[in-house]
Amino acid sequence: MAIFKAEKIKRTEIPPLLNSPLVEAIFELRWEIQTDQQSGRMRDAAYPMMYGRMYERLKKDFPMIEDLPSTQVHPEANPYVVRHRLRKEKNGYPLIQVGPGIVTVNEAKGYSWTSFKSVILRIIESISDLYPAGTFPLNFIKAEVRYVNGIRFDSQRENPLAFLAEKLHTKIELDSDLFESTEMSDKPAGVSLNLAYNLHKPVGNLLLSAQLGQVESKSAYIIQAAIQSFGETVPHDKEAFEPWLNQAHSAAENCFLSLCKGPLMEKFCGS
Known about the structure:
alpha+beta, 10-stranded mixed β-sheet
């Protein structure tokens, strides 16, 4: 597998984006849960007690509670699926989602890295403090930061592959014989591109994807960059998580700068 070396991309500070393409920023953290050897069912020793205690700790800033449809299923039959949301206000962001063995922090248009990281570290601290480690040891097994961007694309006037090459600096070419020997258009009706790279800082994987879709009912390219660490490469406390988060953010930011440099970045900055 190819290796993505974030340090090779020239770093520049992203200015405030007047027209940000961000749809959602997501942090996901998973921890090991017990597996019954006879039934195969998985049980989180902390759930639901830790969720209730977490709400008590966070309710001043996240007073709104939502139970998701997944609560209709027994938690042991649905591990690693979020079941509850904590919000600052109804339908607002940021929000926190909790379930057996999993927590997420989600942010949207109001995103700033400083505040996003602050909430993440607060959640990690809460889990570390509230988890009943005497029952089953707390062992983080997956950490992920994911950015989802929606970039407007005129599907009637623009060729998806030309847009990728000219605006997003990603070239995909098929041999012209393919189109000459068959009766079909050289303009694809759909695009779904997925790439995965080994990553050094932080140690893990960098996933990139580009898909045609819609944002606010309008045609767009959905561009995602995800940084993931698993197993022993996942930090195990708040202090170790801060450098991991900074490195993950740096890798994702480098992707955004590289893919969107030029006219798209000028558009995002409002120039």
